[in-house]
Amino acid sequence: MSWRPQYRSSKFRNVYGKAASREHCFDGVPITKNVHDNHFCAVNARFLAIVTESAGGGSFLVIPLEQTGRIEPNYPKVCGHQGNVLDIKWNPFIENIIASCSEDTSVRIWEIPEGGLKRNMTEAVLELYGHSRRVGLVEWHPTTNNILFSAGYDYKVLIWNLDIGEPVKMIDCHTDVILCMSFNTDGSLLATTCKDKKLRVVEPRSGRVLQEANCKNHRVNRVVFLGSTKRLLTTGVSRWNTRQIALWDQEDLSMPLIEEEIDGLSGLLFPFYDADTHMLYLAGKGDGNIRYYEIGSEKPYLSYLMEFRSPAPQKGLGVMPKHGLDVSACEVFRFYKLITLKGLIEPISMIVPRRSETYQEDIYPMTPGTEPALTPDEWLSGVNRDPILMSLKEGYKRTSKIVFKAPVREKKSVVVNGIDLLENVPPRTENELLRMFFRQQDEIRRLKDELSQKDIRIRQLQLELKNLRNSPKNN
């Protein structure tokens, strides 16, 4: 019977995406129109945060998850930045602490009050200055409390110890803007993609580049570690300008294990990996599709499962942590989709169809919880430790008892590795120079328009004065 087709046995081959009904969405949100390639959204088990469009400075909304429906136009915002907010991330161990970075070169830590905001928040609990250009990315360390990574347009990655409020390490191996950062399971390795078309695996405490790939045929945009499999997955563009994914061995980046073309669309592909189910999700920016695959340990490594389709294009996607999912509905993943045209945030649940309503142990293994495995001093001294696992069956609603205490410090010059970060400014990129040129051209045009309007007004006044002098009453 060798003619029979070979079928793969998988408990996830029938996973389907279910969009929430309108009353369970967040409506009337002025989602930012910024074209920066980030998600502009962060979510945890209690709050949803979205970067919003605002005039003068940058702001984002923080909404309790139960407060669905229409959001009032005057809803309180976090609005302390002087420039556009480019990225936001929730602390994985303290649910009311969120980090943001901005075009104003700062990284800020905010403490959201219990129950959400009642009025605009302008004062951060901690302001971090170390970058000399705008800051495009922030990432929390996956196993260590109060360690934050930030990547700026000065081509540097700074490692912040929030216990002291200072940068303690600097990674200075990039020659252009850093596009993406991803940690392995225990946070001992950092993978980065860069505008110089290189994929790097870095030891973060020393800043040493362990592996480097020069991706000329596969221009990398995003990278994600595939759990503890010692593999990386990147999304990018092929030499024929088609969207493409590539799988790499983290210990040998000389050649990708596989490359696979996805489609001919132009939007960025965002990868999301679920280490518990070994499922990979690919979501396209500017389209409404979410494809999902199962990752295997043997060739062909990637097995296509299904695709969630929607006519509404997505600007970005927030992802709910595992302990915030509804295990009674067999939900294994949840996205929060930003639909800019409608001002809508739409939850999309990935569900494994099961008839039984009891807890399904096979699809919910032990997962990283809300307790840190290390203190900042332990991690900085060279200790690595796997995340502390928790069961989603018992006590998965348990909240962490850790409290964030901001250090008291004064603003001063920031010296790391003997270099003053605020003084050591790299040369401006071509794109930055072009933006400056166009801004100056716009300002010149605006001033010319103002002058012409004033000239017209002066001529009108002169004519009125002449008419008054020549009028019969004055004679």
From TrEMBL:
Ranges: WD repeats: 78-120, 128-170, 171-212
Coiled-coil features, chain-numbered ranges: 444-471
Gene Ontology MF annotations: actin filament binding
Listed InterPro entries: Coronin, DUF1899, WD40/YVTN_repeat-like_dom_sf, WD40_repeat_CS, WD40_repeat_dom_sf, WD40_rpt
DUF1899 domain mapped to chain residues: 5-69
Source domain of life: Eukaryota
Keywords from the named record: Actin-binding, Coiled coil, Repeat, WD repeat
Presence of the UniProt keyword Transmembrane in the record: no
Pfam families per record: DUF1899, WD40, WD40_4
Keyword field contains Ribosomal protein: no
Family membership noted in the UniProt record: Belongs to the WD repeat coronin family.
Protein's recorded name: Coronin
Lineage: Eukaryota, Metazoa, Chordata, Craniata, Vertebrata
